[in-house]
Specification:
Elements: H1 2-18, E1 37-39, H2 43-55, H3 60-71, H4 89-105, H5 108-131, H6 146-154, H7 159-163, H8 167-185, H9 188-204, H10 210-216, H11 224-235, H12 238-246, H13 250-257, H14 268-285, H15 288-304, H16 326-329, H17 336-352, H18 356-370, H19 404-412, E2 421-424, E3 427-430, E4 436-440, E5 445-450, E6 458-465, E7 468-476, E8 486-489, E9 492-493, E10 502-510, E11 515-519, E12 524-529, E13 532-540, E14 543-550, E15 580-582, H20 586-591, E16 594-595, E17 603-604, E18 610-611, E19 618-620, E20 628-630, E21 633-636, H21 641-661, E22 662-666, H22 671-676, E23 680-689, E24 692-708, E25 715-722, E26 730-735, E27 738-744, E28 754-761, H23 763-766, E29 771-777, E30 787-794
Parallel strand pairs: 3-7, 15-21
Antiparallel strand pairs: 1-4, 2-3, 4-5, 5-6, 6-11, 7-10, 8-9, 8-11, 12-13, 13-14, 13-21, 14-19, 14-20, 15-18, 16-17, 22-30, 23-24, 24-29, 25-28, 25-30, 26-27, 26-29
Domain Glycoside hydrolase GH146 substrate-binding: 657-793
Biased composition (Polar residues): 680-690
Domain Non-reducing end beta-L-arabinofuranosidase-like GH127 catalytic: 36-417
Amino acid sequence: MRIAQGLAGMILCIFLMNSSLHAQDSLYNNTFSLSDIKLLEGPFKHARDVNIQTLLKYDVDRLLAPYRKEAGLPAKTKGYSNWDGLDGHIGGHYLSALAINVAATHNAECKRRMEYMLQELKSCVDANAANNPEWGIGYAGGVPNSKRIWSALKAGDFTPYHAAWVPWYNLHKMYAGLRDAWLYTGNQQAKALFLLFCDWGINIVATLTDSQMQSMLDTEHGGMNEIFADAYEMTGDHKYLDAARKFSHNMLLAPMAAGTDNLDNKHANTQVPKAVGFERIGELAHDPQYSKAGSFFWETVTTNRSVAFGGNSRREFFPGTTACMDFINDVEGPESCNSNNMLKLTEDLFRINPEAKYIDYYERTLYNHILSTQHPVHGGYVYFTPLRPRHYRVYSAPNEAMWCCVGTGMENHGQYNRLIYTHRNDSLSLNLFIASELNWKARGITIRQETQFPYTEKTRLTVTKGTSRFVLMVRYPAWVKEGTLKMMVNGKPVNYTVSPSSYIALERTWKENDVVDIQLPMHNTIERLPNVPAYIAIMHGPVLLAAKTGTEHLTGLVANDSRWGHIASGEKLPVDKAPVIVEDNLSAMADGLVPVKDKPLAFTFPALKMINPAKLVLEPFYQIHDARYMVYWMALSGTQYQTYLDSLAATEKERLALQQRTIDFVAPGEQQPEADHNIQSHQSRTGSSSDEFWREAANGGYFSYSMATNRETNIQLMVRYQGAERGSRKFDIYIDGERLVSEDNTARWKQPGFFNVTYTVPAAMIKDKDRISIKFQSPPQGSTSAVCYIRLLKK
């Protein structure tokens, strides 16, 4: 053990000696260091400052507890609860967030905490090498049951790996944290730990075949391919580029490279980080297959699968065309993590090909999703943003909820200065209209951007220091009409010939006190929900407008440690009773919004015909908190609305009645609901059909879920089955090991579709129980039905 520990220490020392004295400002050329761009007063600086206050409320030792536990070190304190099985994932995010804020603000406490975490992690790495020399040299993870998982995986045994919850995804967060601690602050210990950790990862999978690797990658694994690509750029060592390719999932790579969208019913945030890695590999290896995969993924997601605020997914999955109405019916709307990763992919693509379309998307998502997912007072983070009319969001609380979107939230609000300006050869690009100051060290020039955008439709750039000749590339946003952008340099108008969603080039020798004034007139536009044209959103320039609709029944507004606290579980108000716009000319409707006096970006619509009318005010969605809201509005023509509403009312009445009876439910085949209900399975598989997920078991296999009863004793079990199944479908359903029913669905439904069957649960089976295990057991030579949905209902 001492030899292994000494070896790990020797390797760490070698890394430190071979590291440059100063980390490069960025792994990403054309971008400025976060320390070179200072945020000035405005909504983004406020969000950044609130976020730092929130970060400093977390207990670092509790975040590190999983790492010490897996390394065999004595506990300093108890780790955080919630999301059991993902212990450690927030620690990596937190390290990234500290590093980001050290670079952007030079915050002394963030720096102290970052350095403390790195020293503690080094102790864990040393202990792993000493205690687990056969598999643990370089290991810096906090995955529960690490020894069992990684020693078995190294030997080609996937059983513990498949029994765990997304181990590589968990590790990816600390990989990113270590990389970022070096990237943003130049910390050499972080770089050494990162590269040693990368070598550990290469060693763990060294003997796995290509087939085994692809099987392993079927489980969510974060952006592991991106991590190894970054290690390659840091060192120039091709073993890391080889590892990046090895960790690339062919299931997504091949279709995306061929221009084929195969994303229907796939877990969204499992796919986005893979695409980030594809783009990085394509960039560094000049490999067109990987580059095409990354760029096509971005194109199809932003063009076909994103909602008005730039986010995507419902219930964490990309819906198929016919399932997009789920955006309205469900409350688990677009996930914040998805947008975090989509912005990363957008930045990578823009760096290679600086087209304005990338910044148009980046800006929209930054304002309307990322900024909106932080509470402006207590700093809590949002997981799901429901699009259901008149629903609401819930927020995390420090030291309470350890959701994945808490982790990305910690990072999001420190990076607002990241892409305001970029440089390329002899040009400087003004990408975002955010109050800020740029110190372009290489040119010896300082530029100050003063603006209250989007509350005012203008911005001003002033050269406050230095003289330099370069091309200033001013973004002409897609949301400014043709020919309406106005620009002056030192009071003289600038002529240009380009169209919206492009850049205007100004080449001159810039000197101190030069001033560029830019007018950015905004107007109202209508956007339809993807594949659901009856629902519209209203934009003002790049800003999504929404309306507060009430503050009733905001259950769990600030979440506790409960397993499903990230879901806004308060009453679902009937969709058919929400305000409905009746208008034959939606363009005229947008133009008819009336500004509210002395309240920028606020509008009313007094002349608009509306069913279920309400006195509402439109305002930026990112300003709405602690309230129910309308983001998407049903908009019908004068001839269609009555028939449509009658049909919707009947459907909604039935749906809400079922919801009111529901005690607990699980959607088999969907990753998060299954994890939430402690899925146990053997000889079981999942799939999707007609946009519904399912799970079945065969040949003596089974699957089971732990479900809440709320101590109810008069309960029914509703199971949704798929019709038109082939073969024998005889199976048993058990509750806590006791058989509830022997079912035979063989040839029961000869037509395709989905069918609900309800079973009465004897009171004796559930008496005095908070939770029960529901198990579907197949016979030795047969199969269960494909189960699509399971509900426990009040009888």
